[in-house]
From TrEMBL:
Gene3D superfamilies: Vaccinia Virus protein VP39. Residues 46-138 form the Methyltransferase domain. Signal peptide: none annotated. One of its GO terms (biological process) is methylation. CDD domains: AdoMet_MTases. One of its GO terms (molecular function) is methyltransferase activity. Keywords: Methyltransferase, Transferase. This is Class I SAM-dependent methyltransferase.
Length: 246
């Protein structure tokens, strides 16, 4: 791990867009940008964990002023180098606690980024930080998966999600602490290389309680950005909490 950039240092940033290529397609990006543009209205948007700008850049392209907070200089340098990158303001810091000037009509976290905060206290702090940045009536949006504990038989702690001739990947879960990790083993010139990323999984109801502690209330929850209903079988959700207008 890079001390400066956390787990998203130069070695990750160099191939991040390629490794997450399916998340950069119009089918993946446009519905998210549509919703965030709608919620931003005539105001500003704040992205926690802005990364290489997958959402921030097209959102700014819609005319929404966007600011991002991220710990990784390696990731945000890629954002700044892209066309339109100068339109997105960036502050380097921990998005759970870093404050930036001004207020926003929408703050958001995408692609499981809330799980990068590996303690419950940090996740609670993140909600408070979002609420502190929001204008009255503003919204905090999170996209995150539902923990896949239904895939774990008794005695098993790992769930594979990628198996191939050149590598494999699996998530591990500790149901006592809600700690999890994503693990990648890749064969490079016949030799295995290992990458490890720690997370803390969180339930929808737990996020709702964090929101209440921050003075926010649940407004909407869908299965994804296309706003399909969230159900018992949904493997993820996009949730919107609102800061009261009065």
């Amino acid at each position: 791990m890079s001390d400066e950039d956390g787990y998203f240092g130069e070695s990750v940033a160099a191939h991040y867009d390629e490794s997450a290529a399916d998340r950069f397609t119009p089918e993946a990006v446009d519905p998210a940008v549509d919703l965030l543009t709608e919620l931003a209205g005539t105001g500003r948007a704040l992205e926690f964990g802005v990364g290489t700008g997958r959402i921030a850049l097209p959102l700014a392209g819609r005319g929404v002023p966007v600011h991002g907070i991220d710990m990784s200089r390696a990731m945000t340098s890629r954002l700044s180098a892209k066309p339109g990158g100068d339109a997105v303001g960036v502050t380097i810091g921990d998005f759970a606690t870093t404050r930036v000037p001004g207020t926003f009509t929408v703050a958001y976290l995408v692609f499981n980024t809330i799980n990068n905060l590996t303690t419950q206290d940090a996740q609670v702090d993140c909600f408070r930080n979002a609420a502190d940045h929001l204008e009255p009536g503003g919204c905090f949006v999170i996209e995150v998966g539902v923990p896949e504990l239904r895939r774990l038989p008794p005695g098993q702690t790992a769930v594979p999600f990628r198996i191939g001739p050149t590598g494999w990947a699996f998530d591990t879960y500790d149901t006592a602490t809600q700690a999890m990790s994503s693990n990648y083993v890749t064969l490079v010139d016949g030799r295995p290389e290992y990458e490890y990323y720690p997370f803390r999984y969180v339930w929808p109801s737990e996020l709702d309680l964090m929101a209440r502690l921050a003075g926010l209330r649940l407004r909407d929850r869908w299965e994804g950005w296309t706003r399909k209903p969230f159900t018992h079988e949904s493997d993820g959700h996009v949730s919107v909490w609102e800061k009261p207008a009065d």
